[in-house]
Automatic annotation (TrEMBL):
Pfam families referenced in this protein's UniProt entry, alphabetically: OEP
Membrane topology: Lipid-anchor
Keywords from the named record: Coiled coil, Lipoprotein, Membrane, Palmitate, Transmembrane, Transmembrane beta strand
Organism name: Zoogloea oleivorans
Major localization class: membrane
Chain coiled-coil ranges: 47-74
A GO molecular-function annotation: efflux transmembrane transporter activity
PANTHER family per UniProt: BLR4455 PROTEIN, OUTER MEMBRANE CATION EFFLUX PROTEIN
GO-annotated cellular components: plasma membrane
Record protein name field: Efflux transporter outer membrane subunit
């Protein structure tokens, strides 16, 4: 929970930095539009469009400030502090992405608490089978008295074969209406169940690792494609701005290009966030790290 809250805080910082750049760019565009309107070469509609776009971005920036304060309070509470006792300095960049491993040894999964617990349950159930099996044998006290065997064991060993099957004391041990057999069968059933649970736990762990590895590899390719899209959107915005200053297009073209560029930047940031979350999920899936 702390890791996720911290990541959300840094995501908020990155979004804040993006909107600050956006507000600065929109402010320049609004001033240019105002100057052109004052010079009589731009329509009043261009000015109002520029102002509306600027104020919308400013409102979104203020909303991020609210979210950041709430995230700081959440981190403080999760770390055992009062909400007002924690203040984290803003960071304009997201945490660096760890490298995506190509192969992972399966032994890493043994560190997972769920797998370790399931393995212990299998061992405990196996021990119960041994205990149930041992209950078939007579329970006697073995010792030495004057260099001879104890009288209890001596009596048992000296009994005739018929008494082993019919003797009143041993009959209680050897013939108990199937109680010991039932207890052994129950122990075996518990062991089978624990083995099945252990197998399913291991398979689930493998799935989680494979899922997150696949996500990280695919998102890496998606990030490259989105970077190219952002570069194209940025170049398009620059060209449209120049065309507007030259009077060949309306301001509507500028706002459209600005929106495309902002959305491309947000998409790039969103992919980064998903890659960070995928890395955290992978570390959790392998039991707390890759080393």
């Amino acid at each position: 929970a702390v890791t996720q809250a911290y990541l959300q805080l840094r995501i908020n910082d990155a979004q804040h930095a993006l909107l600050e750049r956006t507000v600065a760019a929109y402010t320049r565009s609004a001033q240019i539009t105002r100057n052109r309107f004052d010079a009589g070469v731009a329509a009043r509609a261009d000015v109002t469009q520029a102002q509306a776009q600027l104020k919308t971005a400013q409102a979104q920036l203020i909303d991020l400030d609210i979210q950041r304060r709430q995230l700081e309070h959440a981190i403080a509470v999760l770390t055992g502090r009062a909400p007002t006792d924690l203040a984290l300095a803003p960071a304009s960049q997201l945490p660096a992405l760890p490298p995506v491993p190509g192969l992972l040894p399966s032994a890493l999964l043994e560190r997972r608490p769920d797998i370790a617990a399931a393995e212990r349950r299998v061992s405990a159930a196996n021990a119960q089978i041994g205990a149930a099996q041992a209950a078939y044998f007579p329970t006697l006290t073995l010792g030495a008295t004057g260099g001879t065997q104890s009288s209890a064991l001596a009596r048992v060993l000296s009994l005739p074969n018929q008494f082993w099957s019919l003797g009143p004391n041993l009959a209680l041990t050897l013939f108990d209406a199937g109680a010991r057999s039932a207890r052994k069968a129950q122990a075996v059933a518990v062991w089978d169940e624990s083995v099945a649970s252990y197998r399913q736990t291991v398979l689930t762990a493998f799935q989680e690792v494979e899922d997150n590895l696949a996500v990280l590899h695919i998102l890496e390719a998606e990030a490259r494609a989105q970077a190219e899209a952002l570069a194209a959107a940025t170049e398009s915005l620059e060209l449209v701005n120049n065309q507007y200053l030259a009077g060949t297009v309306s301001y509507l073209n500028v706002t459209s290009a600005q929106t495309v560029a902002l959305n491309a930047e947000r998409a790039r940031l969103d992919i980064m966030v998903r890659r960070l979350n995928g890395s955290v999920a992978l570390f959790k899936a392998v039991g707390g790290g890759l080393l």
